[in-house]
Design goal:
With about 325 residues, the protein is of the alpha+beta class. It has eight helices and ten strands.
């Protein structure tokens, strides 16, 4: 089979970058220079990811893993796109008199073509969500147009990679916007070092660990468990107890759907008994103090990323296994 929930969950579950964690992560104040450097940070990460993948795995290895020609050549085209995005955004910052950030050090944790392509799908999806989420904050119309142009290309990357994993290339009528801090939380896990001349005003949320399952996630059918989430929540905010109402908020398309969590018996895990109807594709989940306000100030963990299928429409291939 091509796609595995186990790989997707494990690659986005935890942070390896020492980001500051506070009891309340606040919504950042941004300007166009900050947003361009935010985008440049993501483009550097994607460029390095494809550069390493093309260096680490041969065309023959991709073919042996089931990714037949011209997949390898198309990966080169995606790498060229990311390189072009880096040059374009860096040049725009320089032209505006703003210092651009630089490439940092990264660790992606892929071990073979399969895990590389699975992570590629996740990263491209996050990139799409990042550009959509940033769009309302861009003031300069020329920058907004350029961001929309890049977004369209990233969306094509996402659809192509998903199709190669035997996933729907368009699982939702709407792509999912994601805010600055949430994207930063996901990107920061891959950053292991380096020094940037730019300090961005973003903060990472505490990690949200999803318990691995041998089953596909189905909307309106599957449950989902967040490992040790109560313990982690109480460490983040000592005011939280086992009786504090906490909600898992599912971000899918333009929807933000809160579901109450319960503490599973004999553990400190949080569980949602049924993933809500209507979510599909690459879905982001955060834990929140509120079921009505979805601001950064209410989030206590996440996001985690899961792939959700419509009820009764899971792949016919074998279920993913946990490793």
């Amino acid at each position: 089979m091509r796609f595995t929930n186990a790989i997707a969950v494990s690659l986005v579950a935890g942070l390896s970058y020492a980001s500051p964690i506070e009891k309340r992560v606040t919504t950042p104040v941004v300007n166009d220079g900050i947003i361009l450097n935010y985008a440049l940070t993501l483009e550097y990460l994607e460029r390095k990811f494809y550069q390493e993948g093309l260096a680490n795995y041969t065309q023959a290895q991709f073919v042996a893993a089931g990714f037949e020609d011209p997949f390898y050549e198309n990966l080169k085209e995606i790498y060229f796109d990311e390189q072009t995005h880096v040059s374009f955004i860096s040049g725009a910052l320089t032209a505006a008199g703003v210092t651009p950030t630089v490439e940092l050090q990264y660790s992606f944790g892929t071990t073979d073509p399969q895990s590389f392509v699975t992570l590629s799908s996740v990263l491209e999806g996050v990139g799409v969500s990042a550009y959509i989420g940033a769009a309302p904050s861009i003031m300069n119309k020329d920058y907004l147009t350029a961001a929309a142009s890049i977004l369209a290309v990233e969306a094509r990357h996402t659809s192509y990679i998903r199709s190669q994993l035997d996933l729907s290339p368009f699982p939702n009528p709407f792509d999912t916007p994601l805010g600055f801090n949430k994207v930063f939380t996901l990107a920061a896990q891959f950053i292991t070092g380096g020094n940037s001349p730019v300090t961005l005003p973003f903060m990472a949320f505490p990690k949200l660990m999803v318990q691995c399952t041998q089953y596909y996630y189905e909307a309106n059918r599957s449950s989902i468990t967040f490992t040790s989430a109560l313990t982690n929540a109480m460490m983040f905010d000592p005011a939280i107890t086992a009786n504090t109402p906490i909600y898992a908020v599912f971000f899918s398309g333009l929807q933000k759907i809160p579901c109450p969590v319960r503490v599973t018996q004999g553990s400190s895990d949080y569980k949602v008994d049924t993933i809500p109807a209507g979510v599909s594709g690459q879905v982001y989940v955060v834990l929140s103090r509120s079921m009505t306000e979805f601001t950064d100030e209410q989030v206590i963990a996440g996001p985690a990323i899961i792939e959700v299928f419509p009820k009764g429409r899971t792949p016919s291939m074998p279920h993913p296994k946990c490793s």
